[in-house]
UniProtKB/TrEMBL annotation:
Every Schlafen AlbA-2 domain range: 47-149
UniProt GO molecular function: helicase activity
Pfam families in UniProt: HATPase_c_4, SLFN_AlbA_2
SUPFAM superfamilies: Winged helix' DNA-binding domain
Name of the protein in its database record: ATP-dependent DNA helicase RecG
UniProtKB keywords: ATP-binding, Helicase, Hydrolase, Nucleotide-binding
Length: 484
């Protein structure tokens, strides 16, 4: 079906161009009597980070336009329900006049383009080069939700829009006396050993070295990143840049004792790990032949990688980093969500590195603490699996990023995360409590026949979650399988 196109522009200037078009539904499929349109890719598009469906227009949708403009841009469809079905817009001609005027008056969005004789409205919102506010309030599209920006979050948006980051801002009045040369020399030795700095770098004076590491402005002022990395006092930059560690009982409310690491962040990873090994974690003793083995409860390499990631990628304009040690798990949380380019599921796949603090990450890379290939999470997962532990749980929560290490591969939380059939989950919890289960016990537990019990238990064996001990008969039991 052909389309007539008509372009119309609104006169006053602005910093962002809004494309609004009336569209004829290019129906893709029919479900339950509803028509669904096809996107540019030829398939039905669900709501996602840069797409929003609205059945009708309300002025509060200007907040969504504002949120898209401040984030990565996006499209708003008026006349589609949440599933992508076209419900139509009766007053589309009236809206084609009203929406542009409201966006100009409230947001400064200009430049109208229009397609005639179609049934739903598409509003295409590009990324704004400056912050956009609606009635004095700044909105931001994050994931599939919109949020109002205040305080630190608003500060970070304003910095982003002018091409700056918090780590790059100068610290007023900072001098060379604020730096710990011993830490700088440690960095130089490690970076030279990795051959990631030239040989003559070790003789550079402090100011020249910091300038070469982009830790000083063109005017010679030292940045937040410089003082965080090599400063004598974190308080000179941020009182919340410290690293808090706590030992807990069974709940978050049962704090037994705690410590705070207040060194500069280049020394912080080593300090945190040393304190963990000395005070918070135990070393189970085992033997391999005559050799005595004392590994940590969790793989040391995985802990180091996670601690470095928390230090490097956290939002230093926010609150503390917290490490909570429980009997059965270790929970590390740092302020600052993942970059918009990454989702949780993508962390375990091949992905690029998007450091929040580029200059801080560069120093850690040169010292050999991290690699620049975005493989940190993969290394953590692989180390835990090799140690016979479950994969750590990673989640964005409370404005930050969490990674939880589990001591027992078969913790109750881990069993729940397997998303097993209810009967199989009951079997796993039974083994957790009793140590093993027989075919007959499983029959009694979930009310199934012997044949069904054998089939169900075999499913868990095939997933390497349990193992069969014995051959046949009453002496056969099923226990947890600790081999991957």
């Amino acid at each position: 079906m052909g389309m007539m196109r008509e372009k119309k522009e609104i006169g006053q200037g602005g910093n962002i161009f809004l494309l609004i078009q009336i569209c004829l539904p290019e129906y893709g499929i029919c479900r339950n009597g509803k028509r669904y349109f096809r996107g540019l890719s030829g398939i039905v598009m669900p709501e996602q980070q840069n797409i929003e469906y609205k059945t009708s227009w309300r002025d509060e949708h200007l907040k969504w336009i504002c949120g898209f403009a401040n984030a990565q841009g996006g499209r708003i469809f008026i006349g589609l329900d949440d599933s992508g079905a076209v419900v139509g817009v009766e007053d589309y001609r009236k809206l084609m006049d009203e929406i542009p005027n409201k966006t100009v008056n409230h947001l400064g969005l200009v430049n109208l383009r229009q397609r005639e004789h179609h049934y739903y409205i598409e509003i295409v919102v590009p990324v704004s080069t400056v912050p956009i506010a609606y009635h004095g309030v700044y909105h931001y599209r994050s994931g599939s939700t919109k949020q109002e920006l205040k305080g630190i979050a608003l500060q970070n948006l304003l910095l982003k829009k002018i091409g700056k980051k918090w780590e790059e801002l100068p610290v007023e009045g900072a001098t060379l006396d604020d730096f710990d040369r011993e830490t700088i020399d440690t960095f130089l030795r490690k970076a030279r050993a990795k051959e990631r700095i030239p040989e003559d770098a070790v003789i550079l004076d402090t100011k020249t070295l910091l300038q070469k590491l982009e830790l000083a402005t063109s005017e010679g002022e030292f940045t937040h990143a410089a003082l965080l990395l090599f400063g004598k006092s974190l308080g000179r930059v941020s009182i919340t840049a410290s690293f808090k560690i706590g030992r807990f009982g069974k709940s978050n409310h049962d704090l037994l004792f705690h410590d705070m690491i207040e060194t500069n962040i280049f020394s912080m990873a080593d300090s945190v790990l040393e304190l963990l090994k000395r005070k918070y974690l135990i070393r189970p003793i085992s033997y391999e032949g005559m050799q005595r083995l004392e590994p940590l409860e969790y793989p040391e390499m995985a802990l180091r990688e996670a601690i470095c990631n928390a230090i490097i990628h956290r939002d230093y304009s926010s609150t503390y980093t917290f490490l909570r040690v429980f009997d059965d798990r270790l929970h590390l949380w740092n302020p600052g969500n993942l970059p918009e380019e990454l989702q949780i599921d993508a962390l375990k796949e091949n992905h690029s590195s998007y450091p929040r603090n580029r200059n801080i990450a560069n120093v850690f890379y040169k010292a050999g603490y991290i690699e620049s290939w975005g493989r940190g999470i993969n290394k953590i997962v692989e180390a835990c699996v090799e140690a016979g532990l479950p994969e750590p749980r990673m989640v964005e929560e409370q404005g930050g990023f969490s990674i939880v290490f589990y001591k027992d591969r078969y913790s109750r939380e881990f069993i729940s995360s397997l998303q097993l059939d209810e009967k199989l989950e009951k079997a796993m919890f039974y083994i957790k409590d009793q140590g093993n289960i027989t075919n007959f016990q499983y029959q009694q537990l979930v009310g199934v026949s012997k044949r069904t019990a054998s089939r169900d238990l075999q499913l868990l064996v095939e997933r390497a979650l349990i193992q069969k001990v014995g051959t046949t008969g009453k002496g056969t039991v099923y226990t947890f399988c600790y081999k991957q």
